[in-house]
Amino acid sequence: MTRALAIRGLDHAYALRSVLEGIDLDLPAGRTVALVGPSGCGKTTLLHLCAGLLTVQNGTLANGFLRPAVMFQQPRLLPWKTTRDNIALGLKALGVPAGERRARAEAMARSVGLDELALGQFPNALSGGMQSRAALARALALGPDLLLMDEPFSALDIGLKAQLHRLLLDHQAEHGLAVLMITHDLMEAVRLADTILVMAADPGRIVFRAELPVPARRRSEAEVYRSTAELLRQPAVCASFGLDLPAEAGNNGNGDGAAVVPLFSPESACAASGAPSCVSSAAAPSPASAACPSGPACATDAGKAPRKKGFSC
Q: Can you give the pLDDT at residue 287?
């Protein structure tokens, strides 16, 4: 089976409440997809489905990766074990011999900036940043080919977050790791992802899709800020988060409820100006929408008022 994650027409409900509807997603090896959206739009439910923690109810989810690992919002370190033993925990569960798992845990700890002193300490003696490093090391020590991340950096300050971003990108470049991440932070998504999927709530669905052709490790700070600003000019993104649409906002929707906007491609300069030749074929207005005075996105969810937020996941 090809190393890829493919989701088609995925629906999910808790009792009578629909949480996810019509989710389509592709994640090949070595790429990063970021799920961005307001609380309660089903991002965590989708991640748990990908991790096999929930049963697929409707649609298809084909996971060709062999060694998935999960990073949760909290580090979830066992308080009675040292940092070294916490990092080696997954290796122990796999039956790796004690000497080998100790060596692999220490090597991964050094790669994320944990020294010998930290390895011998218990979680309550570690700072929040060091606990997050240990959680990242624990996940990467397994040698995963797919990493599922549920906002693991959300509680960190900007400096620690930047360090862990760089560690993750370096590891991904070296090992061809695929990453599916959840974040509320658009700028974090732009820093790390190749594809950004913006979700809206009630039910959770994808309303905007953006591709970033420039590899994450090569994006400058100026590009990150400019790209984030461009995303915040899109009607579907503003509607998803309940934000007021900027007066000068562009309109790159299509007729099927999702939009594709390539960011920082060679044509990005003219794309920012709204020139028709810069809009990707997937985002081009359909004949039915051409007559709409507000542009092609008026036929999508982007033109509607924000829906009431549904089940909080």
A: 38
State pLDDT tens for residues 73-91.
Answer: 888 999 999 999 999 999 9
Contact in structure between 5 and 63 (CB atoms under 8 Å)? yes
Q: How far apart are CA 5 and CA 63, in angstroms?
A: 5
Q: Where in the chain is the domain with CATH 3.40.50.300?
A: 4-67+144-303
Candidates 133, 210, 116; CA nearest to 171 is 133
Q: Is the pTM of this model over 0.85?
A: no
pLDDT band at residue 199 using 50, 70 and 90 as cut-offs:
very high
> What are the CA-CA distances from residue 112 to residues 147, 153, 156 (Å)?
16, 14, 15
State how far the Cα of 193 lies from the Cα of 42, in Å rounded to an integer: 19
Domain spanning 4-67+144-303: which CATH class is it, in words?
alpha beta
DSSP assigned state of 240: H
Q: 143: alpha, beta or left, given left = phi > 0 and alpha = psi -120 to 50? A: left
- Cα(266)–Cα(75) distance, rounded to whole angstroms? 40
